[in-house]
Amino acid sequence: MIFAKELNAALHECLETDERVVLIGEDIVDPYGGAFKVTRGLSTDFPERVRTTPISEGAIAGVSAGLALAGMRPIAEVMFGDFITLCYDQIVNHITKYEAMYNGKATCPVIFRVPSGGHRGYGPTHSQSLEKHFLGVPHLRVLAASLYHDPRAVLRDLLGQTTPALFVEHKLLYPQNFGRPGGLLATDDGTTVCLSAVPREDCTATVLAYGYQAMLAAQVVEQLAIEEEIFVELLVPLELSPLDYGPIERSVAVTKSLVTVEEGTAGWSWGTEIAAVLSARMFGRLRRPVGVVASVPTVIPSSKSKESRMLVGTPQIDVAIREAAK
Amino acid sequence: MKHVLIPTPDVNSEHGVVTAWFVENGQWVEAGTDLVEVETSKAVLEVSAPDSGYILQLGALKDEVSLTAPIALLFDDIDSLKAHQASLLAAPKPESPVRASVKAIKRAEELGVDLSSFDGSRLITVKDVEAAAFVEPDYKDMPSPLTAPEGVQRILIIGAGRGATQVIDIFADRPEQTAVAIVDEQRGKWGELIDDVPVVGGPDRLTELYEHGRFDAVVVAISTSVAARRKFRLMCEQAGIPLANAIDRTAKIATNVEMGEGNVICAFCHIGTATQIGNNNFFSAYNSFDHHNVVANDSSTGPGCMTSSRVKLGDQVRLGTGIHIEPGVELGDRVQVASGATIVRSVPADHVVKTKIVTTVVVPGR
Q1: How far, in Å, CA of A101 to CA of A93, rounded?
Q2: Is residue B97 scored above 80 in pLDDT?
Q3: Non-local CB neighbours of A322 within 8 Å, separated by 6+ positions
């Protein structure tokens, strides 16, 4: 089944099993069913708890915070993740602070669903991957949807606890078939999915990627294995921040080389933080410096050909993996 | 047969959902008839018949369909529609029973290994193919290493190629060293004699022969692969087997030269004063490393390479024939230099120096 439908089914399950769950966002009700059709049919089945909002991300964040403080479990859709910046103050200064400020007497478990990412020619303000600005915010979980993590399990986990969360969904994942690539061996290390053509012992680098970039990386990993016998292990974490370094350390202890991949812009990023931490923890065991793949730090062009030179895609991943596997 | 395509200028969607069919499957439709309604993320699109014909629907109501593939086919007669429908149902799904890398397929051919016998649950690699083809070597019928008089260093040579004959030739002039055996990975060479020295098996015999006191030290006689030189040096290091230098009697080793072990230095080489040579390098004839050079490990040179003073070579450097290197130049690890190059500045690790070969023009004499 395609990923958008998996996600739709997961949201349906949340509404069905937990009466506190409320979905809010712009244009999410039927017949339109959301810009990416993820919420299609949900307002028909749960008209009271699936509500459309004015075009104001600030209002979405504020209403969500109020609902959450009052004991509801709001799941807010920010139609284009670029506009999560309009929620930034409420997330950083309010939503993530209540539980600690009130010593657990108040909780504010808002879940933001954030459709993100480019490669569609949507231009500067509808294509970005802004999650790096939220990494490391205390008491905020940042998770990334992937084709290898069941969204039902993700949402069940989030509803079972009270830390607010950003669930980043790359738009290009929606029409993809959900499931692990048939050509690679898959194992789970906690919520990190480990994929490789051959067992870890025969891999010469670890590749760390999430979301849509993980799907692209999986294709590169399989192709390099078949065509050139360059064997690397791809790790796909679900949670970007806080990050569980255990799976990465276990893989890199064997492969001695690490490269990270993200679609966000280069510098002060997920990958650079991981490079710093891993270099400190595994100094002397790494065969080469940690590689970090990220997009060119500039504005995303509307021209698709220009965009493809600026955003990380298969060619950039291919070059970086070959280098890391040396 | 004609394709019915969904007319869409919508860049937002790759898929749409069929929301209504206005005609029955298999029915005759006239050109221009409204056929189907498809909803994309931005709009509901109506598709009309581009031509008349019998219609075969390619998506059912509520199906998600690609916006770039045909939504229906039109046939001139009902029989060809039925034939096409049958062929769609009967179309076999080709499924390869095993998946192997390109290199593994090639290696399997070389070794005569049948890939279909493998477990198809993961990618088959060269390693798997070689493991399947591997037969424990039987050294019972292999020749034994030669013996030598007391006081003569008995050398085991790794590599039964032309490099071995070069090393054996060096020992012809050096009564204090002699080659007693050769090992090589290629089984085809086992049992052969190279200049009267027997090839006694593969490199896996090193430890056994050394422990039985059949030789004193190893010389790696491979000049064509610096990676192989390194591999065998490390293999000996791990097994605690010493390497020996093989230095031609005509070579000039100047004063204050520091040299490690395992170096092959062919005829008429010059190692200038205060030069440091590491381990396991192979210098072909007429090389001159002038004074105060530093050469690391596992490098290999062709004949006629000349360096000036204070030149540094990293590990696994590969020089072709007739190369000149200016003073103070440093070549990083794994640098490769093509024949005839004159190198005037340093080259970073993992780089290749290419040359444009200028040949003289040859014309018939008058």
Answers
A1: 11
A2: no
A3: A224, A230
Query: Does A197 lie in the same domain as A118?
Result: no
Number of alpha carbons in the 13 Å side-chain half-sphere of residue A116? 28
Report the distance separating Cα B220 and Cα B202, nearest Å: 13
Amino acid at A189: D
For residue B349, give Cα distances in angstroms to A324, B21, B292, B317, B337: 16, 66, 21, 9, 12
Strand B153-158 with B53-57, pairing? unpaired
Residue A34 and residue A31: Cα distance in Å, rounded? Answer: 9
Cα separation, B246 vs B223, whole angstroms: 13
**Contact at CB, A197 and B122, closer than 8 angstroms:** yes
Angle between helices A211-228 and B102-111 (to 10 degrees): 20
Contact B122 A2 (CB under 8 A): no
Across-strand partners of B319? B301, B337
A207, A324 Cβ separation under 8 angstroms: yes
First vs last C-alpha separation in chain B: 74
Q: Which domain holds residue B86?
A: 13-90
- The model's pLDDT over A166-195, given as tens digits with 9 standing for 90+, comes to 999 999 999 899 999 988 999 999 999 999
- A164 with A207, same domain: the answer is no
- Pairing type for strands A206-209 and A233-236 reads parallel
Q: Is the pLDDT of residue B9 over 70?
A: no
Q: What is the phi/psi pair of residue B168, to 5°?
A: -60, -35
Asked whether residue B81 carries a pLDDT value surpassing 90, the answer given is no
Do the strands B324-325 and B306-307 form a parallel or antiparallel pair, or are they unpaired? parallel
The residue range of the domain holding A296 is 185-325
Do the Cβ atoms of A225 and B123 come within 8 Å? yes
Which positions in chain A touch B41 (Cβ < 8 Å)? 35-37
Q: In this structure, which amino acid lies at residue A258?
A: L
Strand, helix or coil for residue A305: helix
Task: With a cut of 80, say whether residue A15 has pLDDT above it.
Answer: yes
Report the C-alpha gap between B123 and B100 in whole angstroms.
5
Same domain, B217 and B261: no
**Last residue of some domain: A146, A173, A200?**
A173
* B39: closest chain A residue by CA: A32
Nearest CB to B125 within list A36, A183, A198: A198
- Closest chain B residue to A40 measured between Cα atoms? B41
Residue A302 confidence (pLDDT) above 60: yes
Q: Say if B126 is an interface residue toward chain A (CB within 8 Å).
A: yes
Angle at which helices B126-133 and B102-111 cross, to 10°: 20
Residues A125 and A271 in one domain: no
